[in-house]
Give the backbone structure.
Amino acid sequence: MKNHPLQEHSLVPHMPSFSRPALRAADPRGGGSCGGRPARCLRDFMAAASPAPDHFAYGLIAGVRTLVRYHHDAQYRRYLRGAEVILAASAPTAWLIRQLQGVRVPICSAAQVASTMLELARPMERILRVGSAPGWHASALARRLRDIRCHPHDAAKGCIDFIEANAPFRFCLLTMASPRQELIAHEVLRRGLALGLVLCVGPC
């Protein structure tokens, strides 16, 4: 029986994947699905980024379009394979992945990312935002954190330069459309000049 097209380029190792030993240890099941506990899965992943980052990593919230692009675009597959964790943006996305590939993927919204970041970040830790201003928790971020640095534009080179110039950082939110955000995160990883955790959350 012929595989479904989405199974030809399996996302199973990457949804969500914990490729660093420290991140695998944070998952009680040793990697793979977090058993329907998106809040804990996200928190464990984000907590693994040290307050004084000694590595660079990026994570991604995937939607249905992510899966379609992953199937059709070989370059985009490279971007997703560079991510250390991939979560589902919605129940339909999680359902589709489960039906086609047999993987349970935690559901996580951009607002959950912001809430978890607020929970984990200390007031003096550096937080970057690249892309449009988030509509969720913007005032809370300003009140809670003191070192927030923003780059509102989405030209890839400018974003990459901004991220590298402001490293090390605790968290960096990429709030722009796919695949630009994944391209930027992957390029920063490839260049190896930044330290911190980037989270691709999409337009807000």
